[in-house]
Predict the 3D structure of the following.
Amino acid sequence: MATLVRLQARSKFVAQQYYFRNSVVDIFRKKEYDAAVKIQSWFRGCQVRAYIRNLHRVATIIQKWWRSYSGRQEYQLIVKFASCAMKMNLYNAMAVRIQRRWRGYRIRKYCFNYFYLKEYLKAVSETNDAIREALEEFAEMKEREEKKADLEREEKKRDYQARKTHYLLSTKQIPGIYNSPFRKDPDPWELRLQKAKPLTYQRSKVKQKRCISLSSWLACTSARSFPRSEILPPIDRKQCQGPFRDITEVLEQRYKPLEPTLWVAEPISELKVAREEFRRQEWMRDVNDNMISKLYYHHLISSQSTENYIQKLDKLSKEK
């Protein structure tokens, strides 16, 4: 019991010591953890820095070798271009020298060679003489052909004149104008007329339309009865490809008559013009009535043929 009492009396002290020691242990554990973290971070930093230094060293070595290789290649290209340029300059100089020698030889041999030029000019003169003779012969031939054509044309003209004037040929009873009895020999035209054939004219048969009735005659003499040339149809063209309108529609729109405005369409003197038009129509109606009455009267009193009647109608229309 005494032991239990002692333990109960020391329980508070034991609890305080336990709490104190646990708190001290936590503090030391945290310090140790922080120290371990610092040590690990320093060690890992040393490792990374060593690795980076190694990478830098390796990259420097690679760059050094690559730059040396590229420099050697560039230097080889420069040397190659320089050698090519030197070779081209040498070749150009040699070509210029060869051309100079060849041109000098050619000029001395062909251009300023006296004997060669003499032979060349002689050959040119001979060729020119031959061409000139051929041209003269051709000109003479053309002149002969033209003269022959003129003579044939004159002969045809004389033959046509002789056929046209064949009626002047002399007969047994009556001598012609080219066969005078006071001449020893007949005129050459008389002989030509004897050889020529008379010229005949073929008259085209024209059928005249006879208008017997008065109405048909008026229809014949009207302006609308004469033949008028109709508008020719448009030429068939190939349809244009694309969204284009028809050609006839475009032409109608282009050449459509002008449409005057009301100010132009209705002049101030419209009433005066209308009165003059009315008087003119009345005068024409009176003239037509008089002409029709005359024609009807002549038709009644006349006993001639239809042809004479038509001739009279033509005369009256001319007098009008």
Observations:
- The longest helix spans residues 2-111.
